[in-house]
Amino acid sequence: MKILLTEIAGKCGQFSCSEALDTSLYDFEMQSLAEAGLLIRQQNEDTYILSGTLRVLVKTACDRCAKEILLSVNREFRYVLRIGKELECTTERQCSDEDCEMLYLEEAALDSKTILAEQLLLAIPRQRLCDQACKGICKECGCNLNKKKCQCGESNADSPFAILKTLGTGAK
Questions:
Q1: Residues 142 and 116 in one domain
Q2: Is 66 within the bounds of a domain?
Q3: How much is the pLDDT for 157?
Q4: Of the candidates 30, 112, 150, 166, which lies 20 to 30 Å from 50 by C-alpha distance?
Q5: How many domains in the chain?
Q6: Is 130 part of a structural domain of the chain?
Q7: Same domain, 147 and 78
Q8: How far is Cα 109 from Cα 5, in angstroms, rounded to an integer?
Q9: Using an 8 Å Cβ cutoff, are 39 and 51 in contact?
Q10: What is the pLDDT of residues 104-124, one digit of tens each?
Q11: Cβ(112)–Cβ(15) under 8 Å?
Q12: Does residue 128 lie in a domain region?
């Protein structure tokens, strides 16, 4: 949804939208439309404050056992929208929290899909687990260790490193 900021001039604009976001490049897929509530208010001539919420259901795989899982994303966000080009710095500097919230727009129009896609990517956890206690899969035989115990790790008595298991246990 395109939102024209010039129509909000001097007041607040409240918007609700449902968007189908393109997740084809990522390792998850949306199970529902992205539901968003947006509140935009003008701060000065070329600066607006955007506050919003995002709700969506996402299907992905557990990083340890590859079981299919559903993640419920419920995220609040805030941006400072500035119309115009970003000032270029001639020296290197550290970004502040305010810099991370700043969004420069070339024209006085906001595309909600772009904002919501960015917020969805930020909301997906780096490590996705079906359960915090997930044991994953066996690196040798590939069985799901949450469902059954395999015998792979116990058959290494012939290994030249098997003697290292006795260190620190008092066995000789």
A1: no
A2: yes
A3: 59
A4: 30
A5: 2
A6: no
A7: no
A8: 6
A9: yes
A10: 888 888 899 999 999 999 999
A11: yes
A12: no
Closest CA to 59 of 69, 67, 50, 51: 69
Considering the chain, what is the average pLDDT of its residues? Answer: 86
Name the band, by pLDDT with cuts 50, 70 and 90, for residue 54.
very high
Domain that holds residue 152: 137-172
Report yes or no on 60 lying in a domain. yes
With H, G, I as helix, E, B as strand and everything else as coil, classify residue 81.
strand
The confidence score (pLDDT) of residue 128 equals 94
Whole-angstrom distance, CA of residue 19 vs CA of residue 69:
22
The model carries a pTM of 0.75
109 and 160 share one domain? no
Residue-wise pLDDT tens digits, 131-165: 999 999 998 888 899 998 888 866 555 667 777 77
Q: DSSP labels for 91-151?
A: S-----HHHHHEEEESSSEEEHHHHHHHHHHHHS-SS--S-TT---B-TTT--BTTT---S
Whether 36 and 115 map to the same domain: the answer is yes
Residue carrying the six token digits 């270029």: 88
* 115 lies in the same domain as 159: no
Structure tokens at 102: 């700043």
